[in-house]
Q: What sequence folds into this?
């Protein structure tokens, strides 16, 4: 078994697509509509056939409540891993990424957090080399 897809709720799919592709440099994988429903996914440009991230519209009350609650608690909705968190921080910041936490050393890793402008906090993690 393997993970092929995970989801993050967003309050605006077009804004989310711009953020995840233009700011984080992900690649759009799928974009299909059926009436008001839109299936939209992105993947890492480093692994375009790897795990996809669905940018799911938070148009149902439970999804919206969940998204707002974890944001209010300061909990990231999604976490990405990198080999160069400081380099990614500078690259993303130069593209307009709004960081709420610059690269910070914590137990076992260095993390940075930013607002995806669609209702979520995103964490970028670089694991410590032992």
A:
């Amino acid at each position: 078994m393997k993970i092929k897809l995970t989801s993050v709720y967003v309050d605006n799919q077009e804004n989310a697509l711009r953020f995840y592709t233009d700011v984080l440099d992900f690649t759009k994988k799928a974009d299909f509509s059926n009436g008001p429903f839109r299936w939209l996914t992105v993947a890492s440009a480093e692994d375009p056939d790897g795990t996809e991230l669905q940018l799911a519209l938070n148009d149902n009350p439970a999804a919206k409540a969940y998204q707002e609650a974890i944001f209010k608690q300061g909990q990231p909705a999604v976490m990405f891993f990198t080999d160069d968190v400081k380099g990614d921080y500078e690259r993303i910041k130069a593209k307009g990424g709004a960081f709420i936490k610059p690269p910070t050393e914590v137990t076992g890793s260095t993390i940075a957090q930013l607002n995806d402008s669609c209702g979520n906090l995103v964490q970028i993690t670089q694991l410590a080399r032992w």
The beta strands are 5-10, 27-34, 37-43, 52-57, 78-81, 98-106, 109-115, 121-127. The longest strand covers residues 98-106. The longest helix spans residues 61-72. The radius of gyration is 15 Å.
